[in-house]
From TrEMBL:
<keyword id="KW-0547">Nucleotide-binding</keyword>
<dbReference type="InterPro" id="IPR003439">
    <property type="entry name" value="ABC_transporter-like_ATP-bd"/>
</dbReference>
<dbReference type="InterPro" id="IPR003593">
    <property type="entry name" value="AAA+_ATPase"/>
</dbReference>
<dbReference type="GO" id="GO:0005524">
    <property type="term" value="F:ATP binding"/>
</dbReference>
<keyword id="KW-0813">Transport</keyword>
<dbReference type="InterPro" id="IPR027417">
    <property type="entry name" value="P-loop_NTPase"/>
</dbReference>
<feature type="domain" description="ABC transporter">
    <location>
        <begin position="3"/>
        <end position="227"/>
    </location>
</feature>
<dbReference type="Pfam" id="PF00005">
    <property type="entry name" value="ABC_tran"/>
</dbReference>
<keyword id="KW-0067">ATP-binding</keyword>
<protein>
    <submittedName>
        <fullName>ATP-binding cassette domain-containing protein</fullName>
    </submittedName>
</protein>
<dbReference type="InterPro" id="IPR017871">
    <property type="entry name" value="ABC_transporter-like_CS"/>
</dbReference>
<comment type="similarity">
    <text>Belongs to the ABC transporter superfamily.</text>
</comment>
Amino acid sequence: MAVEALGLGKNYGAVRAVDDLSFTLEPGSVTGFLGPNGAGKSTTMRLMLGLDSGDGQTLWDGGRLSERVPVTRTVGAHLDARFFHPSRTARNHLRMLATEASVPTSRVDDVLRLVGLAEVADKRPSGFSLGMAQRLGLAGAILAEPDVLLLDEPANGLDPQSIQWLRDFLRAYAAQGKVVFVSSHLLSEMQQMAEHLVVIAKGRLIADESLDSFVARSTRNDVLVRVSDPAALAAALAAEGLTAVPEGEDGLAVATSDTDRIGEAAFRAGLSVRELTRRTASLEEAFLELTTGEQQFQTGGGAA
Ligand SMILES: Nc1ncnc2c1ncn2[C@@H]1O[C@H](COP(=O)(O)OP(=O)(O)OP(=O)(O)O)[C@@H](O)[C@H]1O
């Protein structure tokens, strides 16, 4: 099934948290939902699920969520890492959700195993680390094997090994033909996890495209060429309209991703090529460049 968000909008007093946001989520790959802190990601997810009222609508396989029975088979969501009953064990928490969703309780132990919580099934989530709480939230979201997973910052609090696990898990889930929509403000994690991106800033859509094509739009994609006579190659490339900036002893950074063209120019000029490397911008570099003028990501220290 595809999910279409159409003209979503929400005001909080004078703040326009989400502004005329439309995008489509396709099944089969993980879609990352990216934006700086406060960009409107959580609000958008709540609007999609009908947990907040606002403008626009979301269509689930062409229809409203309320028309899909049971809803739990259509969408599983994990929005708040700490939203658990304080005195119920992990297993009992999931059993309660299973009953509400008309899922056989035998599925609870399967899901606990899937997310790696089998050993702490009889412990209360109040004592869980953030990473364990995230796993429990994910367990709840996949309980009814929904067609769509909506996860808000599921990688928060996970160690690098767990992030790797989450990435493999979500990719495998999507590969079954499911929609997986995952928000994060951490770009390096998203680069690992998503194939498609919906990017917002200040509540507005900035990009809805594959991660590769988003990154390819950055001017930081270039080619490093090391050559016997860099000045001669720079002149040859300039004649072809390519800008080359000296780098290191015998190198040039050329503003293109076309290595063939550089190799051929060097050959025609009778120069020997020592290295020819295509360099790709990181998602973080591409994001910061493509959202200039919009909110910037907060760095680790400093602002809260
Ligand atoms: N309940 C609320 N009352 C008032 N303002 C709100 C409320 N919830 C969100 N906002 C504001 O709406 C904007 C979008 O917030 P939202 O939490 O959706 O962003 P976000 O992208 O999920 O951010 P984060 O990555 O920090 O979770 C922000 O300016 C925020 O301050």
